[in-house]
Amino acid sequence: MSSSYGNHVKITIFGQSHSAAIGVTIEGLPAGFSIDMEKLQVFMNRRAPGRSKYSTPRKEADMPAFLSGLVGNTTCGAPLTAMIENTNTRSGDYDNIRDIPRPGHADYTAHVKYGGFEDVSGGGHFSGRLTAPLCIAGGIMKQILEKEGIEISAKIKEIGGNAVQPTKAIEEAMERGDSVGGIIECTITGVPAGVGEPMFDGLENKIAQAVFGIPAVKGIEFGRGFEAAKICGSENNDAFYFEGDTVKTKTNNHGGILGGISSGMPIVFRVAVKPTPSISTEQHSISYEKGENAMLKVEGRHDPCIVPRAVPCVEAAAAVAIYELYQYRYRYYEK
């Protein structure tokens, strides 16, 4: 199971939704950086469950315990490992899923791949719970990048197709025992021109790889994205101009990336998040044991929409990707 990301700064995420703990190990952080723990916890709280009526009622403090890599709150050069205890699990809610997989979830594919030995409780290693360790890593890297003048901010663009009243779409789905997805937009400012390693380590590649580590993400587009396929080059091309000694573009259809390399303009991308598979409405599925079709009614605690809690996860994934390539650029090209 590939749960690692990066080469120059490597993160490895471990645990399952209902295991004793989940966590992350980060290798390659610079020594001497003091982590603002209060700021990190505020970031973690944005993702944590049980904080609003639109999220799962499962309550977890999501307070990281650092096991190595720090002296006080300052990085010491050793691999940094942090863990979060799982304290509010109800594995019995998933008993029927051991035999009947949830449509739209990884239950079936995990069952095939791991021969029935997969952990189905809470979704196991495929759960959105594993984005908490991602947010530890991303939250730390956001702080390091901010010291370099790089800011990462994501927001909800729409939910269930509703860009004006996104929470209304969630409320309507909850009333039906259903769920909805949505679109998150992320903007990164302050990245200098020249960051990115084509062909396969370009900015789009690395950001997409990290973002697709977030469960339920089904699509990503940069700049004008798929809309660019419908227009002409004369409309899509961004004219260059000088502002003092700085090269800028009059528009930003390219989303701050050309040829996999940052142009110096804001990096902009959008992420499509599917509806939560676990819904209370009865669904058609199959029974492994009986080898026949079956009906499934999902029990337990689930988000009617994970988009609000996924916003900091997108920021975290972006931070991990940007920091990886930023480090590469200054490690190899700025000596």
TrEMBL record:
An example GO BP is: chorismate biosynthetic process
Q: Which domain of life is it from?
A: Bacteria
One Gene Ontology CC term in the entry? cytosol
**Entry binding sites for FMN:** H125, F126, S127, G259, K274, P275, T276, P277, S278, R301
- Keyword Cell membrane listed? The answer is no
Cite the entry's keywords alphabetically. Amino-acid biosynthesis, Aromatic amino acid biosynthesis, FAD, Flavoprotein, FMN, Lyase, NADP
- What InterPro entries would the database entry show? Chorismate_synth, Chorismate_synth_AroC_sf
Catalysis performed (reactions)? 5-O-(1-carboxyvinyl)-3-phosphoshikimate = chorismate + phosphate
Q: Which cofactor does it need?
A: FMNH2
Free-text comment on the cofactor: Reduced FMN (FMNH(2)).
Task: Give an example GO molecular function.
Answer: FMN binding
So where does NADP(+) get bound? R47, K53
The pathway noted for it is: Metabolic intermediate biosynthesis; chorismate biosynthesis; chorismate from D-erythrose 4-phosphate and phosphoenolpyruvate: step 7/7
Question: What is the protein's quaternary organization?
Answer: Homotetramer.
Report the sequence similarity comment from the record: Belongs to the chorismate synthase family.
Which HAMAP family does this entry report, sorted A to Z? Chorismate_synth (MF_00300)
* Name of the protein this chain belongs to: Chorismate synthase
Q: Which organism is it from?
A: Anaerotruncus colihominis
The gene designation is aroC
